[in-house]
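Sorry, can you check?
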Amino acid sequence: MAFFVDEYQDLHDLIVAGRYSEALTLLGELDEMSREDKLDKIGSFMDVLLIHLIKRAEDPRSTRSWEVSIKNAVDMIRRTNRNRKTKKDRFGPDELREVLEEVWPQAIRRAALEVRDGRYTEEELERLVDRDAILARAMDLITPENQHD
């Protein structure tokens, strides 16, 4: 959270000056910035997860490296989502599903470059795979009740 240094200094200055209302407003902004940062990180790992799930859906001859990438992405999503102090998830299934849907277009675009050495266009690949099934599988992998996978 080094990128919040200026904001924390501003927060300190507001508290020292007794400007508590402004300090609380800034604290809310810091919370939102932190939240967005976590969602961005989770989204990056979801992109990797979806790319490999898309590749596996189109070509069931999954490679060991795909499986390792899927496992690593799931682990990092869970880790980033978990609050270390409270041991609770920061984001629930609805928010996680929303992020998955947001990253789907970029994942399908990137997967199209990799699947069968770029044989399919983005549109062709999207028609070949079952988007809903892939998103459901991703949710199954990343939700806490499935941590035994």
In short: The CA atoms of residues 64 and 89 lie 29 Å apart. The chain has a mean pLDDT of 89.
